[in-house]
Amino acid sequence: KNQVEQSPQSLIILEGKNCTLQCNYTVSPFSNLRWYKQDTGRGPVSLTIMTFSENTKSNGRYTATLDADTKQSSLHITASQLSDSASYICVVSPVSGAGSYQLTFGKGTKLSVIP
Amino acid sequence: DTGVSQDPRHKITKRGQNVTFRCDPISEHNRLYWYRQTLGQGPEFLTYFQNEAQLEKSRLLSDRFSAERPKGSFSTLEIQRTEQGDSAMYLCASSLRTSGRAGTQYFGPGTRLLVL
């Protein structure tokens, strides 16, 4: 069964500090991996997308890495801001045309940035 | 605002009632998806459309659930004879599929359903 596991489940950091969120997946073969940010009560917003051949992708203070060999990804947030408080969801997409297109979502890491 | 919109944003209903949600995707997007999300969980896929064709349905989509996208634009998700277990956030997303690539999914704000 395709799975996406995220850690930690929740994290509290001080404003201005850096943090790294982890994602392990078993989806294989996979087409791409995305990180989404979801504010409370709102829909997810895409932060980064990486194909299996990419190792890193940045979007402002967010940097995602991917190791397709170990099936691990991380999302690094630098100089955190209060507005970074949200759930961060790792999403893996299977190879298209192989039957189901369905994305596999992790449960998310709930990040709280405190002043 | 040209993003994905959903209506209503919140719905409270009594067990056994029918409810219908609407999703308006980004106008040029040909794919539309429905997800369900419960507290502390990631979204779970329900179904998706390419234009007006419903191409895939999850096993989560029981007979009480039906989705339509009659003209390939907006979509509706109906839940008949609601149960308390249907309480969740229902998310809609859309994407543009071109040249074999599914495209990034853009999510709407969701409809939060509470069944009493």
Present the secondary structure layout:
The complex is a heterodimer of chains A (115) and B (116).
Chain A: E1 4-7, E2 10-14, E3 19-25, E4 30-38, E5 45-51, E6 56-59, E7 62-67, E8 72-77, E9 86-94, E10 104-105, E11 109-114
Parallel strand pairs in A: 2-11
Antiparallel strand pairs in A: 1-3, 3-8, 4-5, 4-9, 6-7, 7-8, 9-10, 9-11
Chain B: E1 5-7, E2 10-13, E3 19-24, E4 31-37, E5 44-50, E6 53-57, E7 65-68, E8 75-79, E9 88-95, E10 106-107, E11 111-115
Parallel strand pairs in B: 2-11
Antiparallel strand pairs in B: 1-3, 3-8, 4-5, 4-9, 5-6, 7-8, 9-10, 9-11
In short:
Chain A is mostly beta strands and 115 residues long.
Description:
- Helix content of chain A is 0%, strand content 57%.
- The termini of chain A are far apart.
- Chain A contains no helices and eleven strands.
- Chain A is mainly β and 115 residues long.
- The radius of gyration of chain A is 14 Å and the shape is globular.
- Chain B is mainly beta and 116 residues long.
- Chain B is 0% helix and 48% strand.
- In chain B, the strands form two sheets. In chain B, strands 2, 4, 5, 6, 9, 10 and 11 form a seven-stranded mixed beta sheet that branches. In chain B, strands 1-3-8-7 form a four-stranded antiparallel beta sheet, with no helix packed on it.
- In chain B, strand 5 and strand 6 form a beta hairpin.
- At the A-B interface, strand 4, strand 5 and strand 9 of A face strand 5 and strand 10 of B.
